[in-house]
């Protein structure tokens, strides 16, 4: 389960709707990190193929008994279809330059971000693959939208 108010609801002991009615959620490291020093939440596992250097004692979900479970949080820049190629190239070039700045790298790593500065084409392919993967998972689960 992923939602913006979930960490605060869980820390306050409020119910978060899950199939087992337990206060459980999936979130990003950046969302969880600020709440760890106060021990208001407990990280049970990381949904990545290997342990993260910021949390070396936290097992992967696969290590916890669910092999093949992997889900990454990712962010990227997108533009409307038909955006001129020079504009896309300028945004990409500036993004790669900024992402390589030592102070930016340091701040992002502190929040658990692993910066990947791929090409616009590689990012588009990654997004397509993620949409296809999640579509299969949603379909197999039988989940239906709730309004």
Labels describing this entry:
globular, 5 helices, 147 residues, mainly alpha, disordered N terminus
Describe the structure.
This protein is an all-alpha fold and 147 residues long. The chain has a domain at 74-147. It has 5 helices and no strands. The chain has helices spanning 6-11, 29-32, 85-99, 102-110, 120-141. The protein is globular, with a radius of gyration of 18 Å. The protein starts with 5 loop residues before the first helix and ends in a 6-residue tail after the last helix. Mean pLDDT is 82; it is low at 1-5.
Helix and strand pattern: HHHHH
Distance between the termini: 16 Å
**CA-based shape:** globular
In the predicted model, the low-confidence regions spanning at least 5 consecutive residues are: 1-5
Assembly level: single chain
Report the β-strand fraction as a percent range: under 5%
Major beta-sheet overview: none
Structural class: mainly alpha
Radius of gyration: 18 Å
Share of helix, binned:
25-40%
Summarize the structure.
By secondary structure, the chain is mostly helical. It has five helices and no strands. It has a domain at 74-147.
Secondary structure elements and their pairing?
Blueprint: H1 6-11, H2 29-32, H3 85-99, H4 102-110, H5 120-141
């Amino acid at each position: 389960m992923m939602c913006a108010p979930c960490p605060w609801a869980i820390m306050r002991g409020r119910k978060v709707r899950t199939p087992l009615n337990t206060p459980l959620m999936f979130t990003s490291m950046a969302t969880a990190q600020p709440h760890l020093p106060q021990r208001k939440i407990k990280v049970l596992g990381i949904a990545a193929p290997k342990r993260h250097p910021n949390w070396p004692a936290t097992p992967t979900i696969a290590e916890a008994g669910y092999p093949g479970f992997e889900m990454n949080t990712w962010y990227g820049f997108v533009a409307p279809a038909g955006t001129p190629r020079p504009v896309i190239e300028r945004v990409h070039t500036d993004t790669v330059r900024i992402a390589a700045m030592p102070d930016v790298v340091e701040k992002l790593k502190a929040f658990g971000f692993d910066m990947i500065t791929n090409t616009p084409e590689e990012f588009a392919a990654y997004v397509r693959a993620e949409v296809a993967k999640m579509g299969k998972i949603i379909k197999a689960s039988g989940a239906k939208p709730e309004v």
